[in-house]
Amino acid sequence: MTAETSQTLDRGLRVLKLLADTDHGLTVTELSNKLGVNRTVVYRLLATLEQHALVRRDLGGRARVGLGVLRLGRQVHPLVREAALPALRALAEEVGATAHLTLVDGTEALAVAVVEPSWTDYHVAYRTGFRHPLDKGAAGRAILDGRRPDDERQPGFVLTHGELEAGASGAAAPVLGVSGIEGSVGVVMLSETVPERIGHRVVRAANQVADALR
Question: pTM of the full predicted structure?
């Protein structure tokens, strides 16, 4: 800790991180041991976090992350979308296809930013808020591929055809190295296949988005 930081705030944030990393919650004693502080301090931290709905305690006294965290989380998508838009615009204009940023939302892939090219006669309509299973479509498959060890991943990008829309092909690459973000950048176009050069361009866009979010 430095003179410019708050020890109490630091401890409260550490409590939230500890609770977020467990599915079963933690007791006051467990939190006390993990934080290295006495139980009285933990009680005060939990009481404050409960007032803001960031923590809840069940009947057994175990603390868990509260629903207030979800309300904060809803504000993340607009910030991520804003950071990703320049790279998506450049991608869409260069390849003449609809570009998108997709993030994990539970067990689904959720499109949080979409940019359509301005100069093409036609392109695939793809809307923000579109959801699909993670194991279907280039965007979801790229996210799953990003979870694999480096030596087991696809060579940079994933290509699919007709999995989400008949006649449409997609290319996507995972967004890697951004703490708290699991997603992919991709394009979708009306074609039988996606040229390999576009796959490599999608990888570059994914890296640009990752740099913007770090």
Answer: 0.72
Strand order in the sheet with 131-133: 131-133, 108-115, 98-105, 183-190, 168-175, 158-161
Question: Which tens digit of pLDDT belongs to each residue from 22-42?
Answer: 888 999 999 999 999 999 999
- Please state, in angstroms and rounded to a whole number, the distance separating the CA atoms of residues 80 and 38: 38
- CA terminus-to-terminus distance, the chain: 23
Longest distance between any two alpha carbons in the chain, whole Å: 67
* Range list of H helices, 74-132: 76-95
Instruction: Report the alpha-carbon distance of residue 2 to residue 65 in Å, rounded.
Output: 28
Closest CA to 94 of 112, 111, 115: 115
